[in-house]
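User: New here, please read:
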Amino acid sequence: MTAPEELTAAMAAAGAEPYKQMCQHCHAGPGADREAWAGGMRPIPPHLTEAAAEWKAEEVFWLVKHGAKMTGMPAFGPSHGDEGIWNIAAFVKQLPAMTPEE
């Protein structure tokens, strides 16, 4: 699947629950800390509320789909379709501007 022309609010909303289930325990979120056990990972997973501002949506998509070698970041491409992964990328790109209430 090619990149969507724009990441929409609807895509970000659709990516919120998968992010909470699959990503938040390692990468935290607005008002949510990573799980204590994730602090023992090497390298320590980045807090995406900060790191996502430095990455393009295509980079987030690639990391979610393919994972990152020599880290604990799994590849979700084999178990999740591109549309769902783009939704997660849309949500991740919103994280730096989100408040805990959102």
